[in-house]
Each structure stands twice: as structure tokens, then as C-alpha cells.
Amino acid sequence: MKFNTLRIDSWFPTTIGIVDCPFFDKDKYLTYIISKKTNEGFNDYQVHKDKQLKELNDWITLQVNEYSKRHNFYYEYEPKESWFIDYKKYEGNEWHTHSGYTISVVFIIESEDNKIYTRFRNPIFDQKNPQNTKVKDDYKLNNYNVYTFPTCEYESIAGRLLIFRSHTLHSSDQLMTDNKRVILSYNYDPKKTINSR
Questions:
Q1: Phi, psi of 67 (to 5 degrees)
Q2: CB 164, CB 103: distance < 8 Å
Q3: b (16+ CB within 10 A) / e for 164-186
Q4: Which of 25, 78, 107, 134 is deepest in the core (most CB within 10 A)?
């Protein structure tokens, strides 16, 4: 095959799964999760083991395994650990990964729409700065396109699930108001069963 004009192929993508829970009841889940709180901020409560949250946990795991199938991953996945964060004012989450796991999720229980974002970082750090970007220009979208974005962002919408490979750098913005921001997070690794293909 000859290429008379330039073709650009897009390989090795960073994938983010996004889906909204069809049965989500914010007041019900928020009240229940907050009742398990032991402190402000991070709470090491194993949400995935809570029998009162079985419907939600099963739905999240179903979505994770759909994400796995779409990647042709060999295994089925199950949650290995989980927690929730009831963010304090001025608290956010710095760039981090979930080392030691395969797939991770963030599920939004409560947040101000259009104010707080979950962000993901391009795994390739280009040290040559081909856009000639200055610090003040770093997030100007017209400097970038689908091949070069350094980050992407997702609104914090209650009932929304984000699914991603655990090695993906991600963060969340600081909570700058007195309003609630509560999220669940789970880490997944393979079960002993395999995906049907």
C-alpha cells in the first residue's frame, strides 16, 4: 500500500472508562457512606466488602470486567481493596498511581458539578517542549490536539464511575468550598477465572 499523503496512526492509547450508574440514589448512598466515617478525609473502610452496598459493588465490578473484555484481557477481575474519601476544604489529591494493581476506579458519591475534576496525565513526558509552551500556557487547549494533550479531565458528577489502568497517573482538584465531595475508590486484580471471549 502506498501513502501519497501523511497518515497518522494512534497506537498505545491511555484508556479511561466512563459510565453513569443507572440506579444511583445520591442521598441514600451519601448518608450510608458518611455513617462509616472514622475521620475527615481518607477512610480505610473496605467498601467492597460491605453487604449493604452489594448492588453497587456488583455493578462496579461488572463495569470493570466489561472494560477488561474490551481490552481482550485474559482474566476476570475482582476488588482487592477499597476506601472512601470525604474531602476536607482545601484538600485534593496529588498526582499518584495505584501501584501493585491492574485496574482502579473512582466512583463519585457527591461533588459540585463543573468545579472539581479528576485528571489523568499522559504517561509520556516530552522534555523537548515542541509546542514551546510556557508555564502560563500549560492548559491552553489550542496548543494541543489528540496526539499531544498532556492531561485530560473528567467532571465530578454524582453517580459517575471512572475506570483506568492502575499505573495511570491521576489527581483531583482541591475542594475550595464547604460543600461535600465524597468518592469511593477500588483496586482490582485477577480472579482465578478467565474472561469468556
A1: -55, -45
A2: yes
A3: bbbebbbbbbebeeeeebbbbbb
A4: 107
Dist CA 94 CA 50 (whole Å): 28
SS3 annotation, 58-84: HHHHHHHHHHHHHCCCCEEEEEEEEEE
For every residue of 109-170, DSSP letters joined together read: EE--TTT-EEEEE-S---TT-TT---GGGTT-GGG--TTT-SEEEEE--TTEEEEEETTS-E
pLDDT tops 70 at residue 138: no
Give the chain's radius of gyration (CA, Å): 19
Determine which helix (DSSP H) or strand (DSSP E) holds 34, and give its type and residue range: helix 26-35
d(CA 82, CA 80): 7
C-alpha–C-alpha distance, residues 163 and 171, integer Å:
14
Q: What is the DSSP letter of 56?
A: H
Asked whether the beta carbons of 84 and 33 are under 8 A apart, the reply is yes
Q: What is the pLDDT of residues 13-57, one digit of tens each?
A: 999 999 999 999 999 999 999 999 998 899 999 999 999 999 999
